[in-house]
Design a protein that fits this description.
The complex is a heterodimer. By secondary structure, chain A is of the alpha/beta class. Chain A has two domains: 166 residues, P-loop containing nucleotide triphosphate hydrolases (Rossmann fold, 3-Layer(aba) Sandwich); 73 residues, no CATH class. Helices cover 38% and strands 26% of the residues of chain A. Chain A has eleven helices and ten strands. In chain A, strand 4 and strand 5 form a beta hairpin. In chain A, helix 3 runs parallel beside helix 7. By secondary structure, chain B is mainly alpha-helical. Chain B has a domain of 227 residues. In chain B, helix 2 packs across helix 11. Classes of the chains: A alpha/beta, B mainly alpha. At the A-B interface, helix 2, helix 3 and helix 4 of A face helix 9 and helix 10 of B.
Chain lengths: 246, 345
């Protein structure tokens, strides 16, 4: 296995809400073209971690992305331009606008920079999620839960990200749809997109991930290649169990 | 009241209503995107009209100084910020937009006699002076507190309104002015006559409304503004900055305000403080639309125009009272039918 170059590295990352520390000295490395997952129970700080990396929340510590330090002065909008995108847990779709317009706005930053090829990306996204093409004229608010997740991911892909961060993409979806979403995630690897996947559905996440971290009460308690973590007795006991449910 | 008078009043109502509709649309836009209740909207009406009148008198309008000073302030703040964050490459753009452009405008105006220019050029110059004030005021007064509650933003709006009214008195004096009509004379329809200026107002208002509709429906910047209004976080995650959306909506509001002033100044005498009442009537229209619905706001503003025109016939002294009393049943009705829904999901 060749070692790929590092895309994002976080060191000693801490985030506080007032006096309560939600993340404590978290370290994390994502290499190019890799799928990295962060699993952990509810309230462990997974969403906080993504929000901080995206610039939505201020944090302390060091984040280096593509050789550039991402300090608190680098706003969310600028990070989008650098190729970072986040699909938040709440999806944050533009409910009253059409599916097509939602996707188009995903490429807003590229449009601003005068990037051609947005049409090609749209065709690619429609190839990945054919359902979105069928629904292109519908408003986003009329979509089902699974379609919304597809739209949120498709909209993020319209930005041609280098790093796609997904917050609980399987949340509230039917098992069949979850499988489809995870299949898409592993397909992205072939397209050169790195993925940071935050999940409570540890089994599915570890199956697709190259590397995994376990986040518990704001700290990384375990880390290792996906397959190794999946067979680690501590992970099996706490997150996978016999039925694979948690 | 006979048919003739009813027609005349209807014409009045329609003309004023069209202007109120434009202002109502701008108010809804600014509120939806930035949550700012844009009280100073009316000042842009007055500034637009009075700046045009000053140009036609062959003098340099004092609003030119204001745009130079505000532009310098924005350039200083944004320039210092860019340098501090080590993004010096943004500097030329910041300086060109906020410092060089107003100065170039000033040089241009100092070099020509504005009174001798054709009307269209005078209108363009007036807009070029007044419209940039919109994004500059957003940058200086609202952007630093963009996340503040609606009430705080409203308080700032009132402050901005008072400052602009005061400056208006300083710039233009207490005298009211009227500008000549775009086309003098009236169209004789047999049963009634129609001022050409009325036609201009109706045509241009309709064109502006259609233009806005196309802007929001077709262009990516219009869609980005709608997206910001629908879901601020979602928009930021797409790289649509709240600041950009704020400046864009204030630019549009300033353009609509100033253009409205230019349109109505031939049919009504405008003073430095006339904008406030005009803006408030647009606001009543916007409230009828709940500050969210563009079509209802426009229809509400037309209703305000007609109500004003007809009440000036029956109860001239009370026409403002009647117009603003309209807001009470509207608020009652809206509060009864209010739905408290979450933004997303």
């Amino acid at each position: 296995m060749t070692v790929r170059p590092v895309l994002l590295e976080a060191k000693d990352l801490s985030v506080s809400y007032g006096k309560v520390e939600a993340l404590h000295k978290v370290g994390l490395t994502i290499r190019e073209g890799e799928i990295v997952t962060v699993i952990g129970p509810n309230g462990a700080g997974k969403t906080t971690l993504l929000s901080c990396l995206m610039g939505l929340l201020p944090g302390r510590g060091e984040v280096v992305y593509a050789g550039r330090a991402l300090g608190g002065d680098v706003e969310v909008e600028e990070r989008v331009g650098l190729g970072l995108t986040l699909v938040p847990e709440k999806r944050e779709l533009f409910a009253d606008m059409s599916v097509g317009d939602n996707l188009l706005l995903g490429a807003f930053d590229r449009h601003r920079r005068g990037d051609g090829g947005i049409r090609e990306t749209l065709a690619e996204v429609y190839d990945i999620f054919p359902r979105l093409r069928e629904r292109a004229e519908q408003t986003a608010g009329t979509l089902s839960g699974g379609e919304r997740q597809m739209l949120a991911m498709g909209r993020a892909l319209m930005a041609k990200p280098k790093l796609l961060m997904l917050d609980e993409p399987s949340l509230g979806l039917a098992p069949l749809i979850i499988r489809e979403i995870f299949r898409t995630v592993s397909r992205l690897r072939g397209m050169g997109v790195s993925v940071l996947l935050v999940e409570q559905n540890a089994r599915a996440a570890l199956q697709v991930a190259d590397y995994g971290y376990v986040l518990e009460t704001g700290e990384i308690s375990l880390a290792g290649p996906g397959a190794e973590l999946a067979s680690d007795p501590r992970v099996v006991e706490a997150y996978l169990g016999l039925g694979g449910k948690r | 009241m006979d048919f003739q008078i009813a027609l005349l009043l209807g014409q009045d109502g329609l003309t004023n209503g069209a202007i109120y509709a434009l202002l109502a649309l701008a108010l809804v836009l600014v509120f939806a995107v930035t949550r700012v209740i844009f009280i100073p909207q009316g000042e842009f009406v007055a500034y637009g009209a009075l700046t045009l009148a000053t140009l036609q008198a062959g003098k340099l309008p004092a609003t030119l100084w204001l745009v130079v000073v505000l532009g310098a302030a924005v350039a200083a703040i944004d320039g210092a910020r860019a340098l501090r964050h080590g993004s010096a490459r943004r500097l030329p753009r910041i300086l060109a937009l906020n410092l060089a452009a107003p100065l170039a405008l000033w040089l241009l105006l100092a070099g020509v006699d504005p009174a001798g220019l054709p009307l269209a050029a005078q209108v363009l110059l007036a807009l070029a002076i007044v419209v940039p004030l919109g994004p500059m005021i957003y940058r200086l007064a609202y952007q630093p507190i963009a996340e503040a509650p609606v009430l705080i933003l409203l308080i700032v709006s009132i402050a901005v309104h008072l400052v602009l009214t005061g400056l208006g008195l300083l710039f233009f004096g207490a005298e009211g002015t009227r500008t000549p009509a775009f086309t003098e004379g009236a169209l004789d329809l047999g049963f009634t006559s129609l001022q050409y200026q009325t036609l201009w107002i109706l045509l241009i208002s309709a064109a502006l409304i259609v233009g806005l509709y196309a802007f929001f429906g077709r262009s990516i910047y219009g869609k980005a503004l709608r997206a910001t209004a629908l879901n601020r976080t979602g928009a930021r995650l797409m790289g649509i900055s709240t600041t950009l959306a704020g400046k864009l909506s204030f630019t549009l509001a300033a353009l609509i305000g100033a253009f409205s002033g230019v349109l109505i100044s031939p049919i009504t005498t405008l003073y430095y403080d006339s904008g406030f009442l005009i803006g408030l009537k647009g606001f009543v229209g916007a409230i009828i639309g709940g500050l969210v619905s563009y079509p209802v706001a426009a229809a509400g503003a037309l209703l305000v125009g007609f109500l004003e025109a007809y009440s000036s016939f029956w109860a001239s002294a009370y026409k403002e009272v009647i117009v603003f009393t309209l807001i009470i049943p509207v608020l009652l009705w809206r509060s009864l039918g209010a739905r408290h829904t979450e933004e997303e999901e």
